[in-house]
Amino acid sequence: MKSVTVKNVKKVYPLGKTEVYALKGINLEIEKGEFCVLAGPSGSGKSTLLNLIGCLDYPTEGEIWLENMETGMYTEADLNKVRLHHIGFVFQSFNLISVLNVYENVELPLLIRRDISSSDRRKRVLDLIDRVGLTQQMKQKPFELSGGQQQRVAIARALVTQPKIVLADEPTANLDSQTGIEIIRLMHEINLQESTTFVFSSHDPKVINQASMVFYLEDGLRKENAV
Amino acid sequence: MKLAFLSLKSATVKLWRSVTLGFFIFMVAFVMLFANAFITAAKNKVENVILNGFTGHIQLRSAGSREGDMVVQYTPGWDLLKPVEPGTLHTIREILTQYPDVHVTRLCRRAVSLEANGKKQETMLIGIDHGMDSVKEAFLLSEGAYPSLSGNNEILLTKEQASLLGLGVGDTVKTVTKNRYGLKSEAELKVVGIGDYIMLSLFSYQANYTQLSTVQYLSGYSAEETTDILLFLPDTQDLHGMVKALSADLSRNGLDISVTAEEKLTSEDLIVADISFDEDEDEQGILLSTTEEMGEAIKAVTGTLFVVLNIFLVFLMIIVSVLIFNLVYMTGIERYREIGTFRAIGFSKPQVIRIFMGEIIAVSIISTILGILAGTLIMTLLNRLSVSSPLPFLNYIMGETLYLELNPYQMLINLLVILGFSVLSSFLPAYRACAVDPAEAIRTV
User: Fold this and answer.
1) ipTM score here?
2) I need a surface site. Which of A110, B357, B359, B443 has the fewest CB within 10 A?
C-alpha cells in the first residue's frame, strides 16, 4: 500500500518580481512502513518536498496523496487535523518549546486531541519517553539537554500521536556524526517495530546509507540514477 | 484549560515582560479603584449634604413658591418663596401622624443681604428647626459653634463670607431683606460659627444657617409659617412609594399637589426679575419634591467630575493597550519559529491565538486582582485610621477625615474593563503573529 504518492509536483516561490522554481515536477511513491531518505545538496528541494508532504504548504502544481487522500482537496482546518492525527514532524533545530519540560513537550500534540483520555495520554507519553531513553531527564527543560537528547524528545513528540508517517527534515544536521547515527538508528528501530513510514532528508552519506530507500534530488528534480 | 496551562507557562518564561505589563495593569486597577472610590465618596457626600442640609428625602413647599432646584447659587427666585399656610401645615401634620417613622422638620428660607464693614453679601438665609441636627453633617465648623437650639439671631458664616465682610466669631452682621409685605426688614445677627459647606463651598455656594424664628421674623411670618417642610424617611428604598401615598393623602384632604418630577420648572421659570410678585396672590396647594430632584445643578457638576475621571482612566487604559499591543507584537516576532512549530504539529490558528491571548489575559487578571486587593487594603487602612485629609481643600470634599467607599460592583467593573481592553489590544497582534506560513516559520533559525 502506498503511504505517499507525489505526482508531477511543482513548487514556485515568488522572489520580488521573479519566481524561484523549488520543485520542477517531482514524481515518487513511498510504500507504507518504508524508511526512506530524500538526499541531495542544499537547495535541491528536499525541505520543500517534505513540507508539501507534511501539508505545511500547497504545491503550485501536481498532486500529493497520503494513502488515499489527495491533500489539495483539503481546507486549512482539515490539514491541521491531518497534521495532528497522521503526520509527525522532526526538525533540524529540534523546535522544542523552551518553556516546557521533556514530558510536557512530548505531551504537547495530545493536549489538543479530544479522543484520548488523560490516563491514556500519560501512559503513551511515559512509554515514548522511556523508548527514547529520557526517563531520567523527564522534568528537564530543553536547554538542559544535549543536542542528541533534544532530538530524541522531538522524535518522541512526533510519535506520540501514533502518526502514519514521520517526516524529519535534516534530523542530524545539528548533531555530531556519532549522535546523528544513533538518532537515525533509533528512528529505524521504531520504524521496524511500529511499521510507521519514515521520510527524512539529509545530505550526509553516513546517514543516507542507513535508509532502506533513497530518493535523490537536485535542482528541484529527482535524479533516478544518482549515487 | 490545557491551553491556559501553556499560556501560564509562557507568561512565566519572559518574566520581565510579564512583570512590566503586570505593573502597568496593577497601577491602572489600583488608580481606577482608588479614584472611583474617591469620587463615589465625594458624590455621596454632596448628596448627603444636600439631603441633610436642605432637602430631606421629601420636601413640601407652597405651590406659590416659584422655585425649582433649591440648591443652586443665589438667584432672585428666592424672593418668590411663599410660606406654607398654617392651615395647610396643620393638615400636613395630621396626615403625617399616619407615618410615625417619618422624621419631620421645617426650614424657613429668605433671600437676604449681609452687611458689615461697608461690604455686602447676598445670600440665602436658612432658618433651621430645633430638630435639624443633620445640618451639622453638611456644614463643617472651623471655629465657634452651631446656633443653639433655644437661642435666636445667631448665624453661621462661611470662611469666604467672613473674610469678605471682615467678621469673626462673636461679631455681628446686619441682615437686610424685604418681608412678605414688601417692607424692608432687618436684624443684627451674631456670628457664632465660621466654617464651610462640605463640597458646596467649592461652588461658591451662598447660604447661611440661623434659627427658624430669626427668618420667620425677617420674613414677616408667624411662628407657624415656614417655607419648607422636610421629611426624612427611615427607608429610602420606598421613596417613590411614599411620594405616591403622601400625594394621595394630601389630595384626599383637599390640597392640590404638584410633584416636581412630573412637572419640572424650566430655567425660564427661575428668571423672575420681570415677574411681578404678589404675596397676597391666593395660590393654594403644595409642591412636593424629592431629594433626587434637588441640587441637580451641583449633582451635575459631581457627575461631570465622575465622567472626566472616567475619560482620564480610559486614556490610561489606551496607553496600556498600546503597551499590550507592542508586547504581543514583539512576542510574535520573537516566537516566530515556536508558532511555526505549534502549527506544524497540528495546532490551529485560533488555538495559537488563544495561547498568546491567554498569556496577556492571565497577566491582566492577576495584576488587576492584585491592584484591587492593594487598593482595598490601603483604603480599608485609611478608613480605619480615620486619617485627616492630606490637603486642606479635601476637607470641603470629603469632610474632616477621609472615608473612601469600597464598592464590590466597581471592583468587578474594573476587572471587566481591564480584561476587555486586554483582549481587544492583544487580539490583532496575536492574530497577525499566528498568520505566519508554518513552512516558512519552522525554517527560521
Assistant:
1) 0.89
2) B443
